[in-house]
Amino acid sequence: MMETDMHPNNATPGPMALQGVKVVEMGQLIAGPFCGKTLGEFGAEVVKIEATGAGDPLRNWRLLQDGTSVWWQVQSRNKQSVALDLRQKEAQDLARQLIAEADVLVENFRPGTLEGWGMSPEELHAINPGLVMLRISGYGQTGPYRDLPGFGVIGEAMGGLRHLTAEPGRVPVRVGVSIGDTLAALHGVIGVMMALYHRKVNGGAGQVIDVALHEAVFNVMESLIPEYSAFGAVREAAGSALPGIAPSNAYACQDGWVLVAGNGDSIFKRLMDTIGRPDLGQAPDLAGNAGRVARIEEIDAAISAWTQPRAIAQVMDALAAARVPAGKVYTAKDISEDPHYRARQMILPQTTRDGHTVEVPGIVPKLSATPGTIRSSAPHLGDDTDVVLQGLGLSAAQIAALRERGIVQ
């Protein structure tokens, strides 16, 4: 693996939270690999099995540098790449050998794919009883929809999120990133951590973690179902506002947009004083949230009238002085230039294996004793095939023979 000197705390790292944990990552694109990325940042040894030929399609997604996606540089750091043609039995046997020595298997294939390769949970637990097996799919491993194809955007729609991401009466839109996949990955990480803890304290047995994309989205949908159950209320799209909480919205300035969250009772009074509307701040019926919700159009209009002739910086300074929560709507340029991001090392330089330096997101969460690190840059396809297979006991001649027959790359 290619080493780097990039550690988020600018200090020589000590033992890491997941040091000694071995992960085999199978699958591609976002949900499974984001889980592997997160585990790897905190010390897990992650071996990524890719298909021979082109490998993970994410290598070619969005903007490319020297033929490789810069997204790949983030998603696959701290990983080793082994290229296997899993359509062939000998490659499946090699994968089983890797899994037999692993603590965690991460996969995001359509349900039934692993079973078709002779790698069902029962078969894998027979060779590795302690294996924690994370399975991420569109609809889960059971249920009437399990065999349907599902991507993150479909999970966002079925999970209830897409219905809310619109201006009232307009077409539902994407959040802007693949939030369904990432939510599934984060739920998968939580599941892996719980399963590893259970294995440690309850006799060493592994288990299967079943994460469905739509369920991961649904899990963060707040009061959506209780409100429907109790009142028959169907929550609808509300644009940039926070329904039932007032005022909380995006307001236009001369040079962009600012989000203002003035929905606390005392915060609201300070906000109204700041914008020159103490009459609203002192109105008895606006002292509580319910009254403000009833008059939200009037309140939003008052805030907008104050923000529109002002620059973002002027608005932000005034609201900060009044202790009113507010935030500029950031672009990538804003994030890159923000001193707070830099101070907290959330923008880090990373050197690719082609010799480029690219700035990438830092590591979340921040652990005081065992912080995450970027220990190696993202691999080329099959960079680590020989090293990993030698670790299984194969000789150079055996690996060369496998490569000659297209079983490995």
From TrEMBL:
<dbReference type="InterPro" id="IPR050509">
    <property type="entry name" value="CoA-transferase_III"/>
</dbReference>
<dbReference type="InterPro" id="IPR023606">
    <property type="entry name" value="CoA-Trfase_III_dom_1_sf"/>
</dbReference>
<dbReference type="InterPro" id="IPR003673">
    <property type="entry name" value="CoA-Trfase_fam_III"/>
</dbReference>
<protein>
    <submittedName>
        <fullName>CoA transferase</fullName>
    </submittedName>
</protein>
<keyword id="KW-0808">Transferase</keyword>
<dbReference type="Pfam" id="PF02515">
    <property type="entry name" value="CoA_transf_3"/>
</dbReference>
<dbReference type="GO" id="GO:0016740">
    <property type="term" value="F:transferase activity"/>
</dbReference>
<dbReference type="InterPro" id="IPR044855">
    <property type="entry name" value="CoA-Trfase_III_dom3_sf"/>
</dbReference>
